[in-house]
Every structure is written in structure tokens, then in C-alpha cells.
Amino acid sequence: MQLFINQLSDRLSEELVAARKLNVRPLRVSDREFETTVNAGTVKWAVTEQRELFIVPKYVQGQEISHTVLTNGEPVLAAGEADITGFDDYYYLLNINNHSGHYQPSLSSLKIGKEAFKANGINIPD
């Protein structure tokens, strides 16, 4: 399985500090804040080497959150952006892509992302 490495590692410390100042932390589907976060707009997502799925909001207070915040800069199996809607543990993936300037994942890695969302109970369109 291909791992994608942070291509902008020189920015990592600054990105993590900025996220902390905005109280941004990686979320799992099971986290209480997941519903509010996905219904507020586009999220960034990543699947770790251990196949864990994490999300963060794309923007907080007008600042773009970096994909590296999801994994502390560690390599990923897949990463991108998604639009998700839902409530009461019923969520539906509206849109997903592999856009990440930090990790530059392949188009084929989207399959891993979709599988991770599905494994976490997110309904995926056919």
C-alpha cells in the first residue's frame, strides 16, 4: 500500500500551532463534535497508516486548516476534502476528492478514503 509523505514538512510546526490556537483537533466519526463540523461546511480528511479516519474543518475563523493537523504530519494512505451531511448518527457523503497540497495523494487513493468513510458508517453514493 502506498504511503503519501508531507511535501511541506518545513511548515509543520507553524501549522500545528495555528490549529491549537483555533482549538482545532482531529475528529473521528464517533466524536461529539463530528455532526456540527460536517454540517458546517467542507472538511479535510485523512486515513492514517493504521487505517484510522480523521477529519477537521477546512476553514476555522477564515483560516485554512492544513491536512498535517490530522496526523501530526505523519504519512497517510489517503487524504482529501469532503462534503458530508446528516444528523443523529446518519450521515451521507455528498462529495469527496483527493485535494491535498501537503500529501499529493493519487487519484486511486480515493478508494481507500471511501472505504474508510463507509467503514465508519457514512453512507456513500453508488
List keywords for this structure.
alpha+beta; 5-stranded mixed beta sheet; 4 helices; two-stranded antiparallel sheet; single chain; 29% strand; 24% helix; 126 residues
What does this structure look like?
The chain has 126 residues and is of the alpha+beta class. It has one domain. It is built from four helices and seven strands. A five-stranded mixed beta sheet has the order 2-1-5-6-7. Strand 5 (76-87) and strand 6 form a beta hairpin. The mean pLDDT is 97.
Would you kindly provide a brief summary of this structure?
By secondary structure, the chain is an alpha+beta fold. 24% of the residues lie in helices and 29% in strands.
Could you give a short account of the major beta sheet?
5 strands, mixed
Class of secondary structure makeup:
alpha+beta
Oligomer: single chain
Would you report the number of β strands? 7
Question: How many domains comprise the coordinates?
Answer: 1
Any idea what the shape is? globular
Element-level helix/strand string = HHEEEEHEEHE
Rg: 13 Å
Task: Break the fold down into its secondary structure elements and pairings.
Blueprint: H1 12-21, H2 34-39, E1 43-48, E2 53-57, E3 59-60, E4 63-64, H3 68-71, E5 76-87, E6 90-97, H4 110-119, E7 122-123
Parallel strand pairs: 6-7
Antiparallel strand pairs: 1-2, 1-5, 3-4, 5-6
